[in-house]
Amino acid sequence: MAGEPRDLMAPIEAELQGERAFALGQAGKKVETTLAELAANDKAALADDLLDDASTAVWHYLIVRESMGMFDHADALKIYEVPNRVLARVGAIRKR
């Protein structure tokens, strides 16, 4: 209607939400990939590095979810079947 102020930020917010959704999909794929690698190569020599990779992928996934306002991660973690040993390392920074 004429005379009503327009929300000039709405188009920008819509585009940002689309970018966040894309990032969430990419992060979810990374979670799937790293968990599959961990399950397939659970040998002592590789397990620690793969465990770190999987926990980092899950951490990044959770960060993207939170950027979208999703703070309850229980269902998402169940869908991806994230093992407790991976969850135990989420947020940990490894020394290089």
Keywords:
96 residues, 4 helices, 0% strand
What do you see in this structure?
Helices cover 68% and strands 0% of the residues. It has four helices and no strands. With 96 residues, the chain is mainly alpha-helical. The chain has one domain (11-87). The N and C termini lie far apart (59 Å). Helix 1 (10-40) packs antiparallel against helix 2.
Secondary-structure blueprint:
Layout: H1 10-40, H2 44-67, H3 74-79, H4 84-87
Helix pairs in contact: 1-2
Quick gist of this model?
With 96 residues, the chain is an all-alpha fold. It is 68% helix and 0% strand.
Count all strands and give the number: 0
**Number of helical segments?**
4
Give the helix proportion (percent range).
55-70%
Main sheet makeup: none
Q: In what range is the share of β-strand residues?
A: under 5%
Work out the count of structural domains: 1
N- and C-termini, Cα separation: 59 Å
